[in-house]
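Hi,

I'm pasting everything inline rather than attaching a file, because the server keeps stripping attachments. The sequence lines come first, and each chain or strand is labelled.
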Amino acid sequence: MKNLKKVVTLLFMLTLITAAFTGCKNNTGNTKDNTNTKGTETGKEGTARTLDEIKESGKIVIGVFSDKKPFGYVDENGDYQGYDVYFGNRIAKDLGVEVEYVPVEAASRVEYLVTAKVDIILANFTVTEERAEQVDFAKPYMKVALGVVSPDSALITAPEQLNGKTLIVSKGTTAETYFTENYPDVKLLKFDQYTEAYNALLDGRGDAFSTDNTEVLAWSLENKGFTVGIESLGNLDTIAPAVQKGNTELLNWLNDEITTLGEENFFHKDYEETLAPVYGDAADPESLVVEGGVVE
Amino acid sequence: MQDLGIKVLFQGRNFIRLLEGLWVTIGISLVAVAISIVLGIILGMIMSVKNPFIKAVTRLYREFVRVMPQLVLLFIVYFGVTKAFGIHLSGEIAAVIVFSLWGTAEMGDLVRGALASIPKHQYESGKAIGLTNLQIYIYIIIPQTVRRLVPLAINLVTRMIKTTSLIALIGVVEVVKVGQQIIEASRLTVPSAALWIYGVVFFLYFIVCYPISLLAAKLEKAWKS
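And the predicted assembly:
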């Protein structure tokens, strides 16, 4: 009897607290809405903005990496630069709007689209079936496979060598899912941010680090004593812009844009401007760039 | 080679960007700390009430906020609120809400603890010399509570300032994130930049947190004599 009473009061309290919580949040949200009426940043109810709404507002919001050179990073003047940003600038130019870049992390990219906090994600977003259930991918503008970088003193040249060893990965990347599914004996050390992952490898907290091969290739060029022992692992993946699921209008526009840009070899120019200075001879543009959305 | 790393700091607007990032950190922490102290004191007083229902509710709130990692709270407020109610909160607002929720819970518990630590005879002695309840609080209980509270509260404030580095994950660029951006942008030209930039970030946190600790030490000393 006494216990039942306790359970009932507990349940009652829980409902009360949830009510209090939601009420509180609603209020703060409303006040924010009121102060921000002219901003009309992003659409109502967490639905993505249509093409017209973006044009009308005069600004497109694009989510990019801010610490992933040479794809998306911030230079010493505080400006966004890189392969993805070069494309983002062009999108804004062709839409005739200003561009606002929002810094995103690998693990939160899907959420930014689902909640319509950005219009497009251009953050080295690898196309996967899992992600395609939550967001809509446009045509690809790049292709990658996984690479594994390790110290020269204990170079990893085959994924089997990693069994029982510690592999560093970034949360929410394709490397994380690939190794979890295919090599369950590999111990994974996961980090939220790329910078932390690299520092962990430098400190010797893991035996190797795996992420997209473009990324590890660039990094190993800059860090002596580290080599990419496995250059291409897993399936060849493509990288594409993503929009909120169901935002077909913007998706179609992006697809047309990528096709048109293919005619002027835009992405090769992008490569020359942003990636070539970093990779030098270590990578072949044809192995990375996808022109006009067609993967050969 | 030694002086190369520090050079990054003076390239372009790098140093100013770090200071701007620090300003974001300080701004969000200060607002959250101010809200937490006010609400925390009220919550602490509510928690001291000897009503089992109120006790249970406040305890549930405290444990919920404490058990939940701050990062999860940030994601719930930043993304979850948009999903559930369709309300867009900016990263800064979401950060202030989360840190206030957390700070209030912790501060409330500190206030409750400080109040409970005042021996019963202090109240009784006050009554014995004919003071009203209000007078007992103003002249006896509150001064003693505050003295016990200050070191603990300072500890909480510095902890809150340092934990704000998590807000980078909801897109707010604060001082640590700026540091990481600078390190990544210059890792080709200046590989040793990481050490220097993190050193500067450490120093910036230090000059923010140290005066707070200093103030606490001074207060404690002044009250002792």
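The mean pLDDT of chain B is 90.

If the labels don't parse on your end, tell me and I'll reformat.
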